Structure formats: structure tokens, C-alpha cells
């Protein structure tokens, strides 16, 4: 281990209001009358706690939307615990006033005998349990909220429940960690923000929360939301008050691997355990963590950590279920992280998860925001902490942002820096991503504000056609339809003119119909294959086909089967660890792209240049398909513009949409 530089992020606090004990930002989140609030404060400042207090103190109803299932589970568990221990609610009352909208909760309800889960969630729009006094909170991932709004079948007696009911039934609609929202994901957020600004009957206020001071007003402006309806709220840090973080000592270490760094600091790990504090280890790559498990077990044993006192948190281990309890580490999304001495994780723990950890070992992440979120997990409250940042030549050379950050740190060796200084450096790229730009011109089509606005426009149009928005509701949506929605509608109408062509009409209709279905997919969530260990007698877990191809020999050696429930699965002897390749294979991610003028698909690389590749393939003026450019130039140019504006590619191998992103 070579320490290349080190510095300390200074202890920082937030003020407290004399009556409520809330910070100024928390108080404004509860009381500010503005329809749309954009709030940012450092990790650990208690942004989500403000809405817990709104629920308790004012009896308000909150729809709290978070980016991950794990964060959903953790927030619900933390809220339940607080209602019982801090606010004196009975366990029965607390449990009856919280609803979870995610796939894990769906599976739990199914196992408990619930058969009408969609009906249950539609009912929870207006109340979870109106027989008991007190506020309520629905904690949801965005896919489930979208699924409720765009559900395929009406429920008896509840068919008209939809977006307007959400706006009138909740006091707050909160988008947590909004900086993580992809352009296509702004369909849902943009819809709520626009309707709140126009619909006089709306009770809800929209709050966007982030640790990152980024400006989403350019997106909102493109949706014709007037600026006077938006307030920005920033937490002012103070030298005294409620401590958010103690001093955090950052050490940048060049090391061949995470295990070698941990071996050199076993004594530190042991001391933290003896103090009753947790140790957190965060990897960049899932494959590295999985390969390192045998060595990690030895390190934990050397530090005096007993079996099942360490929790592994990543997409594979979170999905584990079954009968095999022989492993050294605990796993599963149902586990409470606070009960373990060491947490070994990937990016799953970056957001909204609070640990009692003062010692953290981390790799920097693929983006600067990963770094900011990760190191913010350490030294919460009035505790000082140490964070080891492991990197090697590959990490250093591959990530431009990290090179710049290390060089910045090297200009402040051993110094005490302020949290705002380090945040400004790390947030620079994210701020640029959201930065305003011209709405027209090919070079601006791909910019975040434009693509987000047009994705919201597509979502708006799809919602207008939903059965829950008939009559006066449809008229209101039509009256308030933002400019991007009108543009999307006009382009699709132009493309649908090709449906009259006897040769390519079927292709044009299929492409347009499937393009509109893209509104239902808020994020690119890859469907996992189910892997059953020990010939079906051990654990089962989910992993993407691409990950298995790159890291294991499983798909080369064992057949892919279709299970009774229709899901694809593969049965392997032994455990996952028995099937790792010596070296990671380079396998490109690809997709079968479809086009509006031909039934032929084209295999394209599914990477950052996918939109450019699709446009290049579509624009070819050769072969029989090129006649469409001569016969239908307006429709063809409309299709080209539509893809450039939205960044959405219709795929022949796309998975059916469900509330989890894929079925």
C-alpha cells in the first residue's frame, strides 16, 4: 500500500430551529408553500427525516420515491423503528400507516396470500389505513408508481384512479436522490411537476432532494413551468449545531487490490469491531467482490469477526434465497445492515443508507458522484472517521474525473478542507450534465435537459390515452400539454402516415406502437437469469446474462431452461465461486434494433454511441428499404428526429415492462 496523498474533510454542522429542532432546510421542506422545491444538502443532513416529521407532526401523507429497492427497504425499516421508539406509536399502528411499493414487497404479499396486489396499491393512493389517525407514507421505486399510473387493466370500482388522485391525496411527492434520474426517467418526475404547476386542485407539493447542488430548472423550463413556482433550498452549514459529520480523514492509496489493502489494516478493523462500530468496504465491480470472497473471509477471521457477522450487499447476494446457509457471510435484501460488524458492498449502499461506521475502505466509483456518496457513509454524527480510497493504474488512467480529483487532493496535502470545497470539485461534471443549452440544433439533441423534456413529453402523451384519464381529465391534460409533448405527438403522427403504405405499413405501425411503449420503461434494467446452485438444492440468485458470459463458464457448460413460471434459469453443480473464469472475457453488450421502414433488425453495440449508430444505419440510402426516403421523406425525417430528441431506441429483444422494470 502506497499512500499518495491525504487530507481531512472538516467537521460540519447544521443549525436547529428553536421550536421544532429541525434544521432550516428541513423546516422549509415541511412548511414552504412553493409547489416545486429543489433541495440539496450534504449526505447525512436529514433530508428524508423532514418528511418523517411532516407525517408525525402534521398528519400528512407522503409519496416518497427512491431509486433502489434496498433504499426503499431501509427507509421503511428506519421509519417503522422511529415511529415506535421515538414517537410512541404501537407496532400495529406504525405498520398500518406505511406502504412499500417495490417488487420485494410484492413477493412478500404473494407469499402471505395476497392475490390482488394491483388493487391494493391503487387503493393505497387515497389511504393506507383511514381507520387509524395519523399521517401515512408510501415508499416506492419509480417503476411501481409508473405501473400504477399506466396499469393495463382497470380494477372494479377503481378504474378512474390515477395521476390526479395522487396529486389530491398526498401532501408531498418526493423524488429522493434526483441527480440519479436518467433522461428517460424524467417522464414521471416531469409529469408530476408540470401538473402540480397547472392543476388548481392539486394538494401535493413536489420536492427534489439530492446531496448534489445541480440545477434541474432547465428541464422544468422546457415543460413550460414558470420559474416563480420553483424554490431552491440549500442547507447552510454552520460551525455549531447538530453535527452532520465529524472530521473525515481521506487517504488515497495505490494498491493492487482491495484484499491487500484490508490485510494491511486488519488491526484497525479489529479495533473498530471492539469499539462496537461497523467497518464498510465498497467495491467498484461486482465481479471483483465475488472473486475476493474467499480472501475476504480470511481477513474477517483474522480481525476476529465471526461467521454471519458480515453482510455482503450487491445485486447477486441481495437476490439470494434458498436452503444453503453454509457460507461465511450473510446475504439478502431482508437483512438489516445495522446488525452486522462489517458490510462488504458495491454501489448498492451509496444512497440513503446510514451506518455506524467510522472506518471505510472504498474504490472511487465510475463517476464522481459515486465518490461523494460513498465517503459520505462514514463518520455520521459527532464521530471522526478514516476513509481509505483504493486505486491502481487502471482506475487512475481510465477515469478522467478521478485523475483530476487526485491532483486536486495533492495540491492540499495534509490540509483541512471544507465539505463545500470537495463537493464543488466532485459535482462539476454532474452540474454540466444538467446545464442549460439551446433547445434546437443537432449538437444539442443529446443534452440532458432536452432529452429529459422530450421523454417527459412522450410519457405525458401515453398517460393521456390511459383509461384513468377520460372525460374532463383528458381535457385538462390536453389543455396543459407541454410543448415537448406536442412535438412528440406531431412527429409520431407524421411517422404513422407510413402505415398506409402496403409494403412497409406493418413495420411502421409496429415501430410507432413500440416506441410509445418506451415511455413505460423509466430505466434500462436488465432482466436477470435465475441460477440455481448445487443442482437445485442450494441457493438461487439472479445475474444478468452478460455478466455471466463475461465472468463465468456457466452459460457455456450448462443449458438455459425455461422454468414452470416462464422465467429462464440455469442449474449448476456447486456454487457460483466454482465457475469463475481466470480472466474476464470481453463480451460486447448488443441489442437488436428495429426501424419504422423495414421488418429487418440490425444488431448494434449497446453503448454510449447506440443512438448515433441507429441514426447512421437508418439514414443509409441503399437497398430496397432506401425507397422509403424517396416516397416518405417527411415521415422518415420525423423518425430520425424523434430518436435524436429522445435518445430512445426500439429493440426487438426488449423485455415486457412490469413494475420492476422487466417482468
UniProtKB/TrEMBL annotation:
Keywords: ATP-binding, Helicase, Hydrolase, Nucleotide-binding
Domain Helicase ATP-binding: start-end pairs: 28-231
GO molecular function, one term: nucleic acid binding
Gene3D superfamilies, alphabetized: P-loop containing nucleotide triphosphate hydrolases (3.40.50.300)
Transmembrane regions listed in the UniProt entry: none
InterPro entries: DEAD/DEAH_box_helicase_dom, Helicase_ATP-bd, P-loop_NTPase
Pfam families: DEAD
Signal peptide per UniProt: none
UniProt organism field: Desulfobacter latus
Keyword Cell membrane assigned: no
Protein name (Swiss-Prot/TrEMBL): DEAD/DEAH box helicase family protein
Amino acid at each position: 500500500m502506497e499512500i499518495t496523498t491525504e487530507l481531512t474533510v472538516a467537521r460540519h454542522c447544521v443549525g436547529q430551529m428553536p421550536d421544532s429542532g429541525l434544521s432550516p432546510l428541513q423546516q422549509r421542506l415541511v412548511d414552504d408553500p412553493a409547489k416545486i422545491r429543489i433541495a440539496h444538502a450534504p449526505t447525512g443532513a436529514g433530508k428524508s427525516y423532514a418528511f418523517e416529521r411532516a407525517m408525525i407532526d402534521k398528519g400528512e401523507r407522503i409519496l416518497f420515491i427512491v431509486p433502489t429497492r434496498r433504499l426503499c427497504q431501509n427507509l421503511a425499516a428506519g421509519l417503522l423503528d422511529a415511529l415506535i421508539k421515538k414517537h410512541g406509536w404501537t407496532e400495529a399502528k406504525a405498520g398500518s400507516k406505511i406502504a412499500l411499493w417495490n417488487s420485494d414487497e410484492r413477493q412478500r404479499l404473494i407469499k402471505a396470500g395476497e392475490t390482488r396486489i394491483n388493487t391494493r396499491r391503487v387503493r393505497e393512493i387515497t389511504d393506507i389505513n383511514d381507520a387509524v389517525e395519523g399521517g401515512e407514507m408510501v415508499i416506492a421505486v419509480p417503476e411501481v408508481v409508473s405501473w400504477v399510473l399506466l396499469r393495463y387493466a382497470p380494477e372494479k370500482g377503481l378504474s378512474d384512479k390515477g395521476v390526479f388522485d395522487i396529486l389530491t391525496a398526498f401532501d408531498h411527492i418526493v423524488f429522493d436522490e434526483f441527480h440519479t434520474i436518467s433522461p428517460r426517467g424524467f417522464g414521471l418526475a416531469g409529469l408530476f411537476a408540470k401538473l402540480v404547476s397547472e392543476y388548481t386542485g392539486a394538494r401535493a407539493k413536489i420536492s427534489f432532494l439530492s446531496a448534489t447542488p445541480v440545477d434541474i430548472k432547465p428541464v422544468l423550463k422546457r415543460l413550460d413551468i414558470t420559474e416563480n413556482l420553483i424554490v431552491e433550498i440549500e442547507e447552510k452549514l454552520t460551525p455549531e449545531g447538530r453535527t452532520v459529520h465529524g472530521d473525515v480523514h481521506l487517504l488515497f492509496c495505490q494498491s493492487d487490490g482491495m484484499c491487500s489493502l484490508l490485510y494491511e489494516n486488519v488491526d484497525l478493523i479489529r479495533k473498530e469491531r471492539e469499539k462496537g462500530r461497523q467497518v464498510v468496504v465498497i467495491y467498484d465491480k461486482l465481479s471483483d467482490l465475488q472473486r475476493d470472497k474467499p480472501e475476504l473471509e480470511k481477513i474477517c477471521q483474522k480481525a476476529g469477526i465471526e461467521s454471519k457477522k458480515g453482510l455482503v450487499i450487491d445485486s447477486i447476494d441481495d437476490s439470494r434465497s434458498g436452503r444453503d446457509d453454509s457460507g461465511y457471510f450473510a446475504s439478502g435484501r431482508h437483512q438489516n445492515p445495522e446488525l452486522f460488524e462489517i458490510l462488504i458492498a458495491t454501489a448498492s449502499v451509496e444512497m440513503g443508507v446510514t451506518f455506524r461506521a467510522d472506518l471505510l475502505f472504498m474504490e472511487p466509483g465510475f463517476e464522481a458522484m459515486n465518490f461523494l456518496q460513498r465517503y459520505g457513509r462514514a463518520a455520521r454524527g459527532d464521530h471522526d472517521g478514516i476513509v481509505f480510497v483504493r486505486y491502481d493504474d487502471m482506475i487512475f488512467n481510465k477515469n478522467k474525473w478521478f485523475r483530476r480529483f487526485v491532483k486536486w487532493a495533492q495540491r492540499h496535502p495534509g490540509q483541512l478542507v471544507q465539505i463545500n470545497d470537495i463537493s464543488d470539485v466532485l459535482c462539476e461534471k454532474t452540474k454540466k450534465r444538467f446545464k442549460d443549452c439551446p433547445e434546437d440544433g443537432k449538437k444539442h439533441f443529446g443534452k440532458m435537459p432536452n432529452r429529459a423534456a422530450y421523454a417527459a413529453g412522450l410519457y405525458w402523451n401515453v398517460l393521456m390515452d390511459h383509461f384513468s384519464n377520460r372525460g374532463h381529465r383528458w381535457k385538462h391534460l390536453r389543455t396543459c400539454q407541454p410543448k415537448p409533448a406536442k412535438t412528440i405527438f406531431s412527429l409520431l403522427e407524421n411517422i404513422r402516415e407510413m402505415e398506409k403504405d402496403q409494403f412497409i405499413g406493418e413495420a411502421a405501425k409496429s415501430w410507432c406502437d413500440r416506441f410509445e411503449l418506451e415511455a413505460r420503461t423509466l430505466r434500462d434494467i436488465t432482466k436477470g437469469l435465475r441460477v440455481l446452485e448445487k443442482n437445485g438444492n442450494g441457493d438461487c440468485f439472479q445475474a444478468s446474462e452478460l455478466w455471466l458470459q463475461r465472468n463465468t463458464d456457466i452459460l457455456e457448460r450448462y443449458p438455459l431452461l425455461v422454468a414452470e413460471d416462464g422465467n429462464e434459469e440455469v442449474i449448476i453443480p456447486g456454487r457460483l465461486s466454482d465457475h469463475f473464469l481466470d480472466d474476464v472475457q470481453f463480451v460486447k453488450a448488443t441489442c437488436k434494433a428495429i426501424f419504422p421502414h423495414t421488418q429487418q433488425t440490425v444488431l448494434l453495440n449497446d453503448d454510449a454511441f447506440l443512438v448515433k449508430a441507429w441514426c447512421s444505419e437508418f439514414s443509409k440510402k441503399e437497398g430496397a428499404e432506401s425507397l422509403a426516403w424517396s416516397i416518405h421523406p417527411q415521415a422518415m425525417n420525423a423518425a430520425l428526429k424523434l430518436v435524436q430528441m429522445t435518445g430512445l431506441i426500439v429493440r426487438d429483444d426488449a423485455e415486457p415492462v412490469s413494475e420492476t422494470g422487466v417482468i
